[in-house]
Amino acid sequence: MPIIDLSTPVDASKWEPETVTHAITSPAEGAVHMAEEMAANFGLEISPSDLRDGELLSIDTLTLTTHTGTHIDAPSHYGSRCTYGDGRPRNIDEMPLDWFYGPGVVLDISEAESVADAAFLERELKRIEYTIQPGDIVLLHTGAAQFAGSMLYFTNFVGLEATATNFLLDQGVRVIGTDAFSLDAPFGDMIGRFHESNDNGVLFPAHFVGRDREYCQIERLDNLDELPPHGFTVACFPVKVVGAGAGWTRAVAIVDEPAGATR
């Protein structure tokens, strides 16, 4: 079965709102580092010259947030309290793994004006002739991936209204993904509408639905345009970062081959 990579890279050379640093310790430097650590921590003596070519292993040290690259937001990312359960939203390391492996469906919302509402999603589902099933992982194609690595990626995309988020959760969806920086509209759009209306309900509505209903978001996906509307499986297990509101994921789509297909 073809496997399509749905993940954007962690790349310190690209622009990010929170700067990413990537320091590389070369294999030769790694040999020196190992020798020093062995002596300091374990009282063991070894020289880098004892190693083949005087090298050991390279080491990469990164400084980044759990929202860099393709990642999954946990319920605790949306706020410190929730109205369901015991009132404490779960962290990423507490989420059930079966949430992150299941049938996928792509909804194209790229033609929506800044945000897509429930009616827009219903029209799109009718167009692709699909009925959402509980446990489906819904991926939103906004077209934002074309701007990845530039400042436009953080300003030019389509978000999801609260009505649309609730509509998907009503169908039994627990994980919603997007190829954009955020599941909500761009900051400038939301803040502009807030100043016009003085209604704080326009600020981060998709995220804040998560304070009342437990669900996760996958943000910063890629290659959604390579997927069929449905007929594939998504695997997007999050990295187990204890106590964190998000975790990185190497999201992939496993595409079902038509009956009788040969390779």
Could you estimate the helical fraction of the residues in percent?
10-25%
Shape: elongated
User: SSE string, helix = H, strand = E?
Assistant: EEHEEEEHEEHEHHEEEE
Q: What's the arrangement of strands in the largest beta sheet?
A: 1-13-11-5-7-9-10-4-12
Please count the helical segments: 5
CATH H-level superfamily of the largest domain: Putative cyclase
CATH class of the largest domain: Alpha Beta
CATH architecture of the largest domain: 3-Layer(bba) Sandwich
Distance between the termini: 10 Å
Task: Provide the β-strand percentage band.
Answer: 15-25%
Please tell me the total number of domains: 2
Structural class: alpha/beta
Radius of gyration: 22 Å
And the CATH topology of the largest domain? Glucose Oxidase, domain 1
Low-confidence blocks of residues: none
Report mean pLDDT, rounded to a whole number: 94
Number of strands: 13
Sheet of most strands: 9 strands, mixed
Walk me through this protein's architecture.
With 263 residues, this protein is α/β, with parallel strands linked by helices. It has two domains: 5-9 and 65-255, Glucose Oxidase, domain 1 (3-Layer(bba) Sandwich), CATH 3.50.30; 21-63, no CATH class. It is 19% helix and 21% strand. The protein has five helices and 13 strands. It has helices at 27-42, 118-127, 162-170, 187-197, 205-209, and strands at residues 3-5, 21-25, 59-63, 71-73, 101-108, 115-116, 137-141, 159-160, 175-178, 216-219, 230-235, 246-248, 252-255. A nine-stranded mixed beta sheet has the order 1-13-11-5-7-9-10-4-12, covered by helices on one side. The longest helix is centred in the N-terminal third of the chain and has 16 residues, at 27-42. The protein is elongated and about 70 Å long. The model has no long low-confidence stretch (mean pLDDT 94).
